[in-house]
DNA sequence: AATGAATGAGTGTTCATTCAT
DNA sequence: AATGAATGAACACTCATTCAT
């Protein structure tokens, strides 16, 4: 009995994680306001109303999506941060990782950088997650020595901005750009 | 007759510029979608419908606001760019100016960085204005020598991101931060 | 003094008749609701607000336009009706005249047939004018003998409907069709 | 499962047909522009927004209503047209039927004769339906021999105009008038 | 006489949300 | 669990109308 309940619960959790991933995509593509629950649901072969069986409101779904994405990215970054090698190398690889998140995996992560949320409380939560994310960079930058809080934020700004001007059809691949950018950002710190 | 017509037209133009400045504020604060014409009008002691005497649609008002703000900032930057002195100094002062635009005059300029516009055409126009703005930096950076296109965009990203984390109630004034940031960004190029 | 006042008044009256003619066109083209005062004014090289110097409301302008058009058409028809010749011939020529009004001069006259007016009182007035117009046909039809009230309305219905299906680019000219229709309608009575 | 789905779908279809009938009434009474979705909804004990669960726009609801009404009337007429008896008799009964549609069932059918639609495409669709309707008359008129295309349109014009002047409180019942009119229209052809 | 400015009322449309099934 | 149905709130937009100039 307990086992089957556990299986059901696990299945539900899996389903929710998928929902959050899809939701993150739509939020990232359209912005919070223009992302409609009906569209998110459609990409999941559901109807908008059904989402309310999993999340009490659009804000909650959004928050779950952001938390999900942040946790995933932060985990990936922490792995890099705690790997072997000199701090400078690890910082460089953090930049590369983050750049690739922006350039390739952007849809599931961008909500972190969404602005103009309707609710200040929601905004505060997102900023908190944003700080968790930035902390990884700050820690490794601190090890390097020259790394200041300001420097870290400057680098993160550069990285967040990548998708505004990067042209995937250009001569540079996402990977090449990521490497190049990482090198340059090291000069910042 | 002609003179009085000119005066009326000038008054109208002035009023429009005020409208655009206020509109830019609201767009920057709320984002395109959540910025309601009624709110923009309220800050001008008008009603939403009255705005239609000046702009045929919300999109047009938005675009006018962005063009207005961009023109103003670009003019300010061009003045700096074409002043006397070594290119490095001028580039540094460009960074300071842009940082102050972000940190102090942000409300009237931020729409340039707005994403998630409802219409691709609108988006394209904004990107075009964005390029005009970036061009100033690129030109002076080119004079410096080390300045690449990518480096310029990285710097602009850092600057655009300032307002996400700068705390005006902290120990650094906007001016101090601007100077500090400008110094650091020079290392990027 | 009186003379100059009279001249001014006459000029004003002329201007109003032009306004009414243009208004009738727009009302006929767009229907009462979709005909905007601004469009009517634009065709007169004026602004919408200026119309209020001549008519206290849209309804009044509409009514004046319809009265104008009706008076003109009725006058034209009365001339035909009171001309020499056998009643049948005159009735036939009445049909031709009315058909041509519909097919050629339609824009200035059609408001008579406009339905869906916003106000019952307005509608009643239009119907009254409509009856004045029908009376001409009825009187001559009565002379013919076989002409009943119903027959007259059937004929007027046929004529009013012409513009729904007549194709000016077809093989029949408006004049030819008018003649043909007049012949056929005589069989009705 | 399939059966219950079918039942749900059928119920929805029924509801839609009711909506279209009511919509046709309001459109006929008020004209396209003045017919507000809120009023149509009110007559169905709904709110305007709810209509959007069934039709994507006012135009679509209008078109569905017209198609619905036309199909119904054309079906009724086709039955008459394909019944036994000499063509003249059948044509006469077509006139009677159409007259009764105009005089009694008018609200659900009149949209066919609505003019001044806001969209040319919409207008074209309505005209197409109008032709389908006229075709029935033209076919039977052709069998009679004297029946021309023009004659048919003249008759239809007479019939469409009936409701402009018929007074239900007068001495003639709708049925009596229909019979009388049918007789007279035969003389047209 | 003409109009620029402003507005209130009305309307189509979207969408998050609720609820009965 | 899923959804069809319904809705209230919000919003862009239109337009007849008023009024000061």
Automatic annotation (TrEMBL), chains A, B, C, D:
DNA-binding region: 36-55
Keyword Transcription found: yes
Name of protein: TetR family transcriptional regulator
Chain ranges of the HTH tetR-type domain: 13-73
Gene3D superfamilies tied to this protein: Homeodomain-like, Tetracycline Repressor, domain 2
Keyword annotations from UniProtKB, A to Z: DNA-binding, Transcription, Transcription regulation
GO MF entry, a single one: DNA-binding transcription factor activity
């Amino acid at each position: 009995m307990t086992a089957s309940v556990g299986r059901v619960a696990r299945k539900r959790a899996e389903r929710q994680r998928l929902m959050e991933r899809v939701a993150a995509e739509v939020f990232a593509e359209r912005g919070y306001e223009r992302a409609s629950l009906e569209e998110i649901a459609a990409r999941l072969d559901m109807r908008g109303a059904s989402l309310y069986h999993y999340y009490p409101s659009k804000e909650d779904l959004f928050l779950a999506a952001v938390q999900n994405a942040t946790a995933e990215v932060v985990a990936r970054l922490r792995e890099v941060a705690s790997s072997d090698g000199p701090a400078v190398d690890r910082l460089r690889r953090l930049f590369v990782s983050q750049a690739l998140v922006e350039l390739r995996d952007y849809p599931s992560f961008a909500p972190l950088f969404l602005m103009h949320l309707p609710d200040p409380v929601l905004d505060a939560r997102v900023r908190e997650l944003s700080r968790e994310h930035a902390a990884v960079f700050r820690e490794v930058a601190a090890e390097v020595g020259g790394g200041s809080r300001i420097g870290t934020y400057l680098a993160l700004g550069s990285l967040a901005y990548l998708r505004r001007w990067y042209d995937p059809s250009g001569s540079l691949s996402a990977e090449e750009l990521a490497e190049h950018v990482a090198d340059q950002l090291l000069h910042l710190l």
